[in-house]
Structure to design on (335 residues):
């Protein structure tokens, strides 16, 4: 473990492939919130799960939280953490058993005095934080999520761990070790990215050993109906990919596409959708599933894009979304 940790740290420090959010500045153009008619309405709280190599105390995430409050005034933002120290939280993006990590988050959110009493929360997942939030929704969903937005997430896994530069021998060496041990239970219970590794040419090993992705994507013979039922409760599931993403391989995973060599199979053409293992087809048919793309490399975010996303998908409970009538979503409980 110590050896693996050292190598993996070297790997991630020496390559530039982090899902780290740079500080966002508030856009100069005013973004109106959607609910000027009733000032007593408080927006739903927003939970954010950050990506690999980032930590809950980072300036970039604080700027995202502050923008959420600017766009929907009164928003309580909660940045998910797996450790109270920034370095421990960062380390947990690389190391740990995702099953246990999600259990921990489920317990913390369910015990949170404000989040647990809200009728629902909104959710924002950056990179791997997107599929982790989906795991939270499928397995616990208390408090329940209304709108989930993911940026550059690996919903259909990754088929490469990291890209190393040509002369980065340490990086390449570490990558080799990870790759050769990907399916061992040692690696599956300790290295986070290995738990969403999915190479279409290794489906048998994946279905047998994947500690996380094969399970939450309901790819095994026995489908968990709770996962489907919980995901179908979303009112919005918006998936952003980055046009020039070279960090996430394949980048199409952000839309649940499967890439086999050079062939890209879109979600709507896959069994996971056609047989509706996860409720994605149900979401799509009610107009709740959105495929979006933005320019730039992995995690190239700016305030204008985020403000648009926050205004379109977050805000008060019971608000209408484009293409859907407000009456589709009756309020069960006031905030
Ligand atoms: C399905 O998932 C739920 C929530 O995690 C769990 O309680 C249940 O045991 C799972 N069912 C099966 C058949 O694995
Ligand atoms: C991860 O933790 C869960 C819960 O303790 C356990 O059932 C599972 O076997 C662990 N995964 C691996 C690959 O060891
Ligand atoms: C991907 O392509 C390989 C080689 O053509 C093939 O063996 C494999 O079955 C394909 N996998 C899937 C999931 O389509």
């Amino acid at each position: 473990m110590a050896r693996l940790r050292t190598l993996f740290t070297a790997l991630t420090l020496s390559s530039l492939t982090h899902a780290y959010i740079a500080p966002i500045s508030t856009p100069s153009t005013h973004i109106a919130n959607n609910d000027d008619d009733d000032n007593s309405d408080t927006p739903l709280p927003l939970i954010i799960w950050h990506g690999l190599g980032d930590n809950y105390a980072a300036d970039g995430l604080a700027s995202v939280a502050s923008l959420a409050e600017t766009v929907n005034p009164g928003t309580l933002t909660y940045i998910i953490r797996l450790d109270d120290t920034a370095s421990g939280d960062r380390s947990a993006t690389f190391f740990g058993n995702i099953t246990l990590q999600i259990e921990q988050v489920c317990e913390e959110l369910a015990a949170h005095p404000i989040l647990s009493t809200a009728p629902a929360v909104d959710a924002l997942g950056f990179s791997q934080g997107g599929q982790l939030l989906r795991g939270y929704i499928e397995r616990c969903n208390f408090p329940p999520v209304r709108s989930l937005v993911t940026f550059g997430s690996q919903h259909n896994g990754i088929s490469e761990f990291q890209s190393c530069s040509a002369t980065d021998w340490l990086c390449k060496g570490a990558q080799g070790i990870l790759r050769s041990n990907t399916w061992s239970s040692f690696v599956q219970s300790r290295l986070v990215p290995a738990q969403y590794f999915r190479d279409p040419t290794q489906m048998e090993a994946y279905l047998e050993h994947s500690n996380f992705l094969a399970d939450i994507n309901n790819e095994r013979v026995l489908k968990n109906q709770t996962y489907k039922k919980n995901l179908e409760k979303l009112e919005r599931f918006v998936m952003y990919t980055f046009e020039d993403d070279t960090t996430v391989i394949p980048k199409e995973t952000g839309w649940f596409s499967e890439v086999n060599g050079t062939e890209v199979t879109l979600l709507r053409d896959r069994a996971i959708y056609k047989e509706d293992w996860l409720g994605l087809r149900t979401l799509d048919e009610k107009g709740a599933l959105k495929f979006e793309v933005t320019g730039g490399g992995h995690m190239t975010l700016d305030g204008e894009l985020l403000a648009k996303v926050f205004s379109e998908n977050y805000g008060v409970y019971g608000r209408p979304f484009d293409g859907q009538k407000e009456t589709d979503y009756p309020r069960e409980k006031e905030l």
In short: Residues 2-16+43-312 form a domain with the Rossmann fold fold (CATH 3.40.50.1820). The chain has one domain: 2-16+43-312.
